[in-house]
Amino acid sequence: MPKAKNIETVGKLEEKLKKAKGLVLTDYQGLTHKQMEDLHKSVKKAGAEYVVVKNSLLNIASTRNQKPVTSVGPTAVLLAYEDEFAPLRELVKFIKTNSKPAVKMSVLGGTEYDAAETTRIASLPSKEGLIAQLMFTLNANTQKLAYLLTQVKK
To answer: Do residues 88 and 78 lie in contact, with contact meaning Cβ atoms separated by under 8 Å?
Structure first.
C-alpha cells in the first residue's frame, strides 16, 4: 500500500507537470547546498522551479499526464512555467560556471531531446534576439535597395 506522503507528492508533481511548458531532467549529484540555493534562485527569476524528485514518483506523475518521462539515478527537474527557454539558459549558464548539474534530457514544446540537443537549444538566441536580428537584416537590405535606386536614377 502506497504511503500517504508519496500519494501527496505524486499529486503535487502531477499538477506541476500539467502547468509546466517545458522540463529538463538533471543529475544534481555533487552540488553543494549553496550551489543548489543559487540555482533555485536563478531559475525562479526566469519563471521556473528546480525540484529534486524520486524517479518512481516522477514516472507515475508523468504517466498520469500522458507524457511519460523516465530517469535513472539522482534526478532533479527544472519545470519551466512561463518561458521554456529562459530557465534553460539560466541552467546552462549555471552549469558552465559550476560544471554541475549534468543534463539528462528535456521535453520542450512537446518534443523530447537528449542532453546534447538540450544544451544546443539553450545556446539559441531568445525570441527578442531573433526579432532584433531580423529587423537589422531587413533595415540593412532596405538601405541597400534605396542606395541602388538612387544610383540607377543618376
So the answer is: yes
Q: From its phi and psi, is residue 48 left (phi > 0), alpha (psi between -120 and 50) or beta? A: beta
Q: Which residue has the cell 547546498?
A: 33
Over the stretch 20-76, which tens digit does the pLDDT of each residue have?
Answer: 999 999 999 999 999 999 999 999 999 999 999 999 999 988 888 777 787 888 999
114: three-class secondary structure by DSSP = strand
Q: What predicted TM-score, i.e. pTM, was given to this entire model?
A: 0.79
Report the C-alpha gap between 134 and 128 in whole angstroms. 10
Nearest 10 degrees: Cα torsion 143, 146, 150, 153 = 160
Rg over alpha carbons for the chain, rounded to the nearest Å, is: 21
- List, for residues 97-119, the tens digit of each pLDDT value: 999 999 999 998 888 999 999 98
Strands of the 75-80 sheet, one edge to the other: 48-53, 75-80, 22-27, 102-108, 111-114
Matching residue, cell 540555482: 39
3-state DSSP helix/strand/coil % of the chain, to nearest 5: 55, 20, 25
Are 56 and 32 contacting, i.e. CB atoms less than 8 angstroms apart?
no
